[in-house]
Structures are given as structure tokens and as C-alpha cells.
User: What shape does this take?
Amino acid sequence: MNLFHSLHEKGIIHAVVNININYKKSAKVGDILIIVTDLLKAGKNSFTMFQKIFLKDTDILIADAEVTNVFIDMNTGKVVPVDNEIISLWPDLGNYFNKDKSSFSKST
Assistant: This one.
């Protein structure tokens, strides 16, 4: 079971609240694209992913983007904080904790 399915069962969905995209090359109908996604940062109420979009079987970068998301309670429509329950479903978040645990950043 994946993260988003597990959260959906708990009444939590995710939504994109901001996206900054840089188009590098054009793609055409029928092209197969590969999207590589890394968690860039996470805070108390949101997380940002960095995505690179490549033309399949090449190193041609079509676009890159920073995508900021939040978790939302389906019943109330309110933002759900990134808490230990969400982190337990997404173990990679553990690599992004700052010592004070009020926000996250990628460990180097």
C-alpha cells in the first residue's frame, strides 16, 4: 500500500498549492516522459518536491519544477500538519528532520 492510499483511507488527501516550472525543451504527443522526483524540503504544514522530466531513454531534460503540497482533511477541508503519523507512512521524511523537528531539510 502506498503513502497516498494509506492517507486517503484515513480521510487525508494531498493538494498542490504552488508549482514553479521551468520548460527547457518541448515534448510532443506520443513522447514518453520519465519524471524523477526528490523530496526537497518539508515543514510543519507542507512539503516541496523537486521534479525533473526527461524524454525516455535520453538525458534530454524537458522541464524541471518545484512543487509544494499540503495534506488536507477531506471532511473539514483544513490543512493537516506533517506529523509523526504521516512520517511513519513516509519513512524518507525521517532523513529531512532538523534537530528541533519544527521543519525538515535534506540531510547532506
